[in-house]
Design a protein that fits this description.
elongated, Rossmann fold, binds calcium ion, TIM Barrel, eight-stranded mixed β-barrel, five-stranded parallel sheet
Length: 401
Amino acid sequence: MIDDSLQRLRVLVVDDKAFVRTMTGRILQSVGIANVSYAADGREALEFLKRDDPRVGLVLCDLMMPDMDGVELVRHAAELPHKPPFIFVSGANAALLGTAADMARARGLLVLGAIEKPVSVESVRAMLAKLEDVRTSPKSAPRTLPLTAADLTRALDRDQIILHYQPKVDLRTARIEGFESLARWQHPEHGLVPPGQFIAMAEESGTIEPLTDRVLSLALRQCAAWNAAGLSTKISINISAHLLVDLRMPDRIAREAAQNKVDPKQIVLEITESGVFRDAADTLDILARLHMKGFALSIDDFGTGFSSMEQLRRVPFGELKIDRAFVNGAAQNQKARAILQSSASLGKSLGLSVVAEGAETQEDWDLLAALGLDLVQGYFVSKPMPAEAVPGWSKGWDDAH
Ligand code: C2E
Ligand code: CA
Ligand code: CA
């Protein structure tokens, strides 16, 4: 991090022990941070953050404190208009630090990481380097663009919603099994906007229905075009559980597939498990009929929802996609590996095709192969790409494997 921005950065150190505050302050000063403020508990810290003058650019926060602890502080800080990045500092065990960091992220805060006590010059330097990465990375552009349902409706009218495709390959043979279609918004001002910025809004506003209709027809047309060009492959489409309430949906999709002369067997419908059972009767009705019409059903983000076992029992899924939280880094993380392994063996014993998503490294790939998973999707194979790039990529992959 350049010295100039370090000199301007104000860091708030929150700890109930005076000697820890003093020591942390000295370390911060020794790495070039001149503006350090202190709070002895969460309440004092919150007052400081609320005043917003001087503005705090980073909070180093202890977890266990009397009165208001670090977890409570985060809960309140998340409500403030200006939310500084957090680093947790604690003598508590690594699992608790990890839980606190996940909780803060779930509340929309940027968490740079956790430092186990005692704080050292090296650990502070490493965190500051992360702060600099985050600042300069294009991804840290505002996480929530002010996009509304009306904007999305307009975008649909103007054909600004497009699909990128990410390959899914067989772990044993390296054969290309299919491609997942992933929505992108080609926005005139914001550039290529990822779905994380608009799917939730679309679900809340109901615009998910016209959006999914568009995604379906784009994917079906693409599938037909690839069939015609001799690149016959499967395409996966994400279906929000919010849409499993319209009893006419299976007929609509089947009709559209037929119009495009696409065999439903080429289409995999990925359903995020967490919301599947809103209205059990209608949802099961819809899923059963999609299955009878020949569409393959996939349970997406497996491991992150609430009633996944129940859904596996009731719905005729053919594929289970293990969430990338349990895939990437599973080689190092014993808990993630245990969940990955048991999800895989559960899927296998139910006769499902088991897919791991989010494999980023050779190490990830090797572990998945060793655990006997069927398919893999992730940056290690390829990032999602525009449709035009797919034929060339496929040829390159087939030639190399
Ligand atoms: P998803 O269904 O879990 O899709 C996989 C996401 O993981 C994609 O993000 C993909 O780019 C990303 N990914 C794949 N491999 C890796 C990897 O190795 N490392 C990392 N870090 N990430 C990887 P994307 O395209 O941003 O999509 C995010 C989510 O948005 C999707 O998650 C899906 O839930 C939703 N989404 C996308 N398109 C649609 C759509 O047409 N309809 C609905 N309802 N949801 C969609
Ligand atoms: Ca998916
Ligand atoms: Ca997923």
